[in-house]
Amino acid sequence: MNNEQLNIIACNSSAQVIDAIFDNDGKFEIAKHDVLEFTPSGYFKNYNHPERIFWPQNSLPYNQESLYIVDSVKQADKKYEVTLNKWDFGGPTIIGNTEQTCNIVIPTYRLIEVTKKYGFKETEQALEWFKKEFLFQTTENSYLFFRILSNTSNLEGGWLGCNYVANIESKKVDGKEYLFVSNLKKSPQKKLNVQKGIAHIRFVSEQEAIVSDPILNAQLAKQAADPNSIINLWEKYNQVDAQMLEDYKIQSGILRIEKITAKGENCSATLQNKSEEIENFKNIYDQLNANQKNSYSIYVFSKRKSYNICDERIDEKTRTVSWKWGERKPKYDNSEKLELEGFAIDFKPWSIASKRRTAALENIRTRNIPIASITDILNKTTLPSFGSAAVPKRLNDLKIEAAFGNRRPNEAQKRALKVCLNTPDIALIQGPPGTGKTSVINALQKYLQSIDPKHPEKMPSILLTSFQHVAVDNVADGSSIWGLPVFRFYGEQKDKEQIFRGLQKWQEDTAKKIDEQINKLQSDTQYIEYEKLQISLNALSAASSSYEIRNLLQEIINLAVTNSILSPSEVDTLKEFKKKFQVKQINNKFYQCLMGLRTTSTGFNDDGKRMIEHVLEYYDLRKDSLNCYALEKGYDQLKKLANSTPSQEDLDWVEELRNKCIEQMVPNPTDSFDNQLFTILKDYIDTTIEPNIRERIRQTDLQKLIVLNSYKENVGFKSIRNAMLRYAMTYAATVQQSKSESFVRLLGKKNFEFDYVIIDEAARANPLDLFIPITLARKKVILVGDHKQLPQLVDQDILEQMECSNDSRERFEELKGFMEKSLFESLWDYLKTERNDGIVRTVTLDTQYRMPQKLSDFVSRNFYGDETHIQTGKNPNDCIHHVSRYTKKNGDCKCAVWENVDSKESGKISKTNEAEAELIIKRIKEIIKETDETIGVIASYSAQTRLIDKIAKSDAELKKKIDNKHLEIGSIDAFQGRQFDIVFFSVVRSNDRNNFGFLKSENRLNVAFSRQKKLLVIVGNRKMYETEKAQEEVPALKEFIKLADEEK
Fold it and tell me: Whole-angstrom Cα distance, residue 71 to residue 81?
């Protein structure tokens, strides 16, 4: 029993101290805090060591129902003299089943409380805490526990621990009774009527209790086997994806080399394959890179090694491949020594992604994840809850608001932050365009940082992730850890410093901002003088001669007079020091006086007093020029000796003083100086000069300059990197990279998990990719997105493969609709309307700060309907643009414009509309002459995007705008999450059939209509979008024409 467990004794109402004597036969030892029990056979057994028994020599009235805790032990000859704390109990001993284990369930929220309070990283640590707090092991299969006296004979009641009291209750679930901890509170540390109990007890988590229960296991198995469950459908999708990977490997084959020609870095090879095989290889390679944005590569291989290549060109007609070497290349003198066999596509990106998906899916399916309830949510399974975690904890509103910084949050944003903090497992934040979802993500991080700033090691770790690098960058850029950028992981790099390349931009931006502030202060001359003063003061502390000290003191005095940074008294003091460090020239008269001092009794009795007076009189007249520090210090004592009869000790002191004075006044080649005086000077500078300087400049621009320059010097790349590695609590990576080997290796493989996993743009990511970071969440998963914007990424080829295994076309259409519905939307619908467990897990942000109110109302009405009304928090003055063409007659700015272009589209697959492109370029060239506002150009088809981009870059002025990011051209997919002052939207589609194509997707139109901060200009064939068919298939476009007409 340890010291804390003795607290239990203090709570017993009938504890007393007794002295006992035990036999000591040398076989067993007894120690302080051992717990003893008196047996019917007349000996004591030791709970700590059951094999040890002790026979008492004194006949005291020992009680079999009591416990005896050893307080002290004194070992004598063949006996132990022991002081015992006798602990009597107010009720009979509770005897539990020692043959069968009794599980006591710790509700998940209780485990989280304990984990948070004691800074544990694992659930097992919290369970171990309960064991140490409430149980005392007696044998291998039994534990001793203490309960506040109760009338019940079972294990229920208030269990007394070292520092806490746990209330143990029973609950029936599907006919089976469970014991669980319903309450946990601090021990009253007062006298209580206590009884002891013995049983085979284990504290277990909810998850362990569920898994070990056959009835609940059967229920889980049944629901998990549902072929229509989210997990099973995506497992099927993943299986088809893995099979397609193998098929592609077989179909692409390899290109066999016939002959190689190498000239420096340029290599080429003729191939053995037929032209059709080469064309097939090339088509597959191009298709892979088209889908995955050039993430695939080709490698050339020999019998033993392989090498990645770049800038490859495959020509099926000439049956040749030309290339350059990648980062690693073979060593060779000429092409004849290149023993290479062929080329193959490197399917590693697909293969690695597939393995990560499969592993994550399996962990979720088997509930082998830190937050097991997420599996139940995905399976739409409601399991029994031990205790109520539904009651949200009260959060300080001031701290909630403070987490948003200078920007005052609206009610929905505050509610979203509270939901994130209170959810026991997962929270979904829907962020319509411009509603500040990034602000909520940043506020959550700041709130978690503020929990215990004095103990960074206890801060919860956070993973920021999204399916695209751009999205990760956007959310990471707005986050910081105590002023440092987020630890952004980009991937495996040859140069390890490149892992931190995201720091480079932050460092440069920070240094630039500091420079701007320094220039604004316009105090460079004063700062230069201050720096000179600091240099002189620092040099003074390292001086080694009187000559050097004297010159440095003169520099300091001159600088002080120039900028008035030292007070007159401080300047005078430094001048005095300077005098004392003058180069010494021998003073013959003073030397003669000193040599006349008597140092023997006979001599002193003769004329000793008169000689002392000569020395003192001469010193008084010339002390400023003599600089005799030894005499200055001993002046008073020497004067006393002139009026007394000195002892031999006094005369020895006079001799020592005389020698010191002569030494100080006689020059030597090294110009040595008084070290004691130098120490006094340095102490004066450290304790008086330096602190006074700091205090005088503290409230001045000079202080700001000093701080800014010091900060600028310390934002070096390595210093930031090292600080991030030491203090990082927030990490950022894509969903796939969040479980990459290089990321795991960088952070350490042990317990590679994060307390909070925040997934931005969650409605766009493929669920299989979302599952990867979800499995890494230790406490909470926060999904941030908007299922009303771009849909999730689903491979149509895989869906067609899945169709083959379905019985009917109708069933396939149902499956397709489900698979194209984002995981975010599926969870949103389930958690908001179906899962009735009393826990709020969803919030919609309802106030936008991006666009004018008319456009905001338009977006709200057309894409969110009655379900969500988006309010406007944008100041109308911030919506004013400076484009004269788009200004009303009364001088007000238009916010919605339809530019009519009556021309037909072209192209078979990806469409273009040249007239629309030309008009947009013409309008942009007009605008940039009037304003420097940012412009975004969106097209509904990628071919139109490329056309507009080509025309713009052919104009030098527009190319410059593109280079400095004032003009950007992209697709709808590329612009989700982006915003610009002015947006042009090229609808492209214009045909006699009124075929609207991609424009029928409301999600895509929602993105296109919501990127602008001031003005949206739609360019297209007005006539086509005013038809009845347009009203049916693209009502938002027809509605916009009405809005634009109202703006005239």
Answer: 11
Nearest to 541 by CA among 694, 726, 683: 683
Q: What is the pLDDT of residue 591?
A: 78
Q: Which residues pair with 70 in a beta bridge?
A: 84
Q: Please name every residue paired with 485 in a beta bridge, in sequence order, or none if there are none.
A: 480
Question: How far lies 620's CA from each of 583, 584, 613, 617, in Å?
Answer: 20, 18, 10, 5
CB burial of 315-327 (b: ≥16 within 10 Å; e: otherwise) equals ebeebbbbbebee
Quote the distance between the C-alpha of residue 988 and its chain's center. Answer: 43
* Separation CA 280–CA 388 (nearest Å): 61
Residue with tokens 């890179």: 289
DSSP string, 506-556: HHHHHHHHHHHHHHHH--HHHHHHHHHHHHHHHHHHT--SHHHHHHHHHHH
Q: How far apart are CA 306 and CA 328, in angstroms?
A: 9
If you search the block for the tokens 């020091």, which residue do you land on? 577
Between CA 61 and CA 16 the distance in angstroms is 13
SS (H, E, C) 228-254: CCHHHHHHHHHHHHHHHHHHHHHHHCC
Sheet containing strand 15-23, strands side by side: 15-23, 79-87, 67-76, 35-38, 44-46, 53-54
Instruction: Say which amino acid occupies 137.
Output: Q
- 196 DSSP β-pair partners: 146
Q: CA 159 to CA 445: how far, in whole Å? A: 38
Cα distance between residue 1046 and residue 1048, in whole Å: 6
The structure tokens listed for 446 are 């700041």
Measured distance CA(879)–CA(1001) in Å, rounded: 28
Q: Which amino acid is at 320?
A: T
Which residues, in sequence order, are bridge partners of residue 1017?
897, 984
Question: If the chain, 1048 residues long, is cut into consecutive pieces of 10 residues, what is the mean pLDDT of each piece?
Answer: 54 69 77 82 80 80 81 83 82 76 86 83 88 81 83 84 89 77 83 82 85 70 75 90 93 94 87 95 90 80 90 94 88 73 93 94 90 88 62 80 90 96 94 94 89 67 90 79 71 48 62 61 57 74 73 80 77 83 66 84 85 88 78 89 88 89 65 70 84 70 55 54 65 91 77 89 94 94 96 81 64 73 92 81 96 97 91 94 94 96 89 96 96 96 95 96 95 91 97 92 95 97 95 96 93
Q: pTM for the whole thing?
A: 0.71
Question: Amino acid identity of 579?
Answer: K
Q: What distance in Å separates the CA atoms of residue 444 and residue 479, rounded to the nearest whole number?
A: 10
Let me know: does 753 contact 368? Beta carbons within 8 Å: no
The token pair that represents 298 in the structure block: 């080709």
For 402-544, list the strands marked E by DSSP: 426-430, 462-466, 480-481, 484-485, 487-488
Q: Measure Cα distances from 547 to 360, 555, 574, 669 in Å.
A: 75, 13, 15, 12
- What is the distance between the alpha carbons of residues 1001 and 1040, in angstroms, rounded to a whole number? 16
CA distances for 507 relative to 280, 442, 712, 729, angstroms? 47, 20, 9, 19
Residue 821 sits at φ, ψ, to 5 deg, of -80, 125
Distance CA 374, CA 46 (A): 47
Q: Which two tokens stand for residue 372?
A: 């097991």
Distance CA 782, CA 112 (A): 17
Task: Please report the pLDDT score of residue 811 as a whole number.
Answer: 63
**Tokens at 323, concatenated:** 């290339």
Locate 329 and state its tokens: 């290349």
Quick one: tokens of 115?
């984990």
CA distances from 282 to 252, 294, 345 (A): 8, 14, 10
Say how far apart CA 463 and CA 383 lie, in whole Å. Answer: 28
- Return the residue matching tokens 């500078």: 685
Digit-coded pLDDT (tens) for 199-237: 889 999 887 887 777 766 776 677 667 777 889 889 989
Q: Where are the beta strands (DSSP E) in 747-858?
A: 754-759, 777-785, 842-844, 847-848
